[in-house]
TrEMBL record:
UniProt xrefs under Gene3D superfamilies: P-loop containing nucleotide triphosphate hydrolases
GO biological process, one term: transmembrane transport
NCBIfam families: oligo_HPY
Name of this protein: Oligopeptide transport system ATP-binding protein
Keyword rRNA-binding attributed: no
PROSITE patterns with a match to the protein in the record: ABC_TRANSPORTER_1 (PS00211), ABC_TRANSPORTER_2 (PS50893)
Sorted UniProt keywords: ATP-binding, Nucleotide-binding, Transport
The organism's place on the tree of life at top rank: Bacteria
């Protein structure tokens, strides 16, 4: 189920699964599968930002890599502009690199220390737009540096000469220089100081408003997601727990897991109800609802039967057997 109609979607994800086969040498003594992403559905509209939140290990980064063609998909589908791109090989993905780009979590690790920042930003242009001449390529690089708030005079400097925030600006410039239609940001500010985080988030918002870019923004920090996203999707153990507009989700969260996440953030107004129990392994998730071992309202039905995403009172969707009851509370 999706809040954005399929006809209006630039990127459409259907029952997407990314599973990893595990060896037999495991505590339960049999081979199995680690379900990193397990049946995710959503649509992304042109010019929209979808925020994705959840604890470490929930599958956010695996989902991002699958959407960017960096991770093989087990089953399900990904469509971009109406075209099925799920099973494309490296050659099939090459022209799509112009359309879908990614900003990585670690700004230093994503840049080659032996290349100047100018060469790093120019590299995707050389690979994806070989028809562009050297002079135009250099002009685009300098213009992009200025757009991300770095002086063009820094073009011949190396990554080690920059701060983390400056390196992340370079990473953003490198992704946007090919003028993509979709930008996937995987924890782009988590390694930065709080003051620098705000600068990067504001930069992304400004660049999006200027170019009409569609963006998927993955983060742990709910305040950051609230600031930049139009819609928010909450993940837990590879599954979508809740999906709604930013205003609806922060004002009236429906799923117990979403409520617990928001309760941990000061100023959200959500009554704190601490979670108990350990997060199950994605290699051996509960048979019913994956959140059942930590949920304060779970019953025997939750133990046996996995819930599906159903419409909630806030207009979004929630994967909880008690969605109707919680919505009415």
């Amino acid at each position: 189920m999706n809040a954005v109609p399929a006809a209006a979607a630039l990127l459409a994800v259907r029952r997407l699964k990314v599973h990893y086969k595990l060896p037999a040498a495991l505590p339960w003594g049999r081979p199995g599968w680690l379900k990193a992403v397990d049946g995710v559905d959503f649509n992304l509209a042109p010019g929209e930002t979808l925020g994705i939140v959840g604890e470490s290990g929930c599958g956010k980064s695996t989902l991002a890599r699958a959407l960017a063609g960096l991770q093989a998909v087990t089953s399900g589908g990904i469509e971009f502009a109406g075209r099925n791109i799920t099973r494309l090989d490296e050659n099939g993905w090459r022209p799509l690199r112009r359309e879908i780009q990614m900003v990585f979590q670690d700004p230093l690790a994503s840049l080659d220390p032996r290349m100047t920042i100018g060469a790093s930003i120019a590299e995707p242009l050389e690979a994806l737009y070989p028809e562009i001449g050297r002079a135009e390529r250099a002009s685009r690089v300098l213009a992009m540096l200025e757009k991300v708030g770095l002086s063009a005079s820094l073009v011949n400097r190396y990554p080690h000469e920059f701060s983390g925030g400056q390196c992340q600006r370079v990473g953003i410039a490198r992704a946007l220089v090919v003028r993509p239609r979709v930008l996937i940001c995987d924890e782009p500010v988590s390694a930065l100081d709080v003051s620098i985080q705000a600068q990067i988030v504001n930069l992304l918002a400004d660049l999006q408003a200027e170019s009409g870019l569609s963006m998927i923004f993955i983060a742990h920090d709910l305040a950051v997601v609230r600031h930049i996203s139009r819609r928010v999707m909450v993940m837990y153990l590879g599954k979508v727990m809740e999906q709604a507009t930013r205003e609806a989700l922060f004002a009236s969260p429906v799923h117990p897991y979403t409520r617990a996440l928001l309760a941990a953030v000061p100023g959200t107004g959500v009554h704190r109800q601490p979670l108990e129990g350990e997060i199950p392994s994605p290699a051996d998730p509960p048979q019913g609802c994956v959140f059942v071992t930590r949920c304060p309202i779970a019953d025997t039905h939750c133990v046996r039967h996995p819930p599906t995403l159903v419409r909630a009172v806030h207009g979004g969707f929630s994967a909880c057997h008690f969605t109707a009851a919680v919505s009415a509370a």
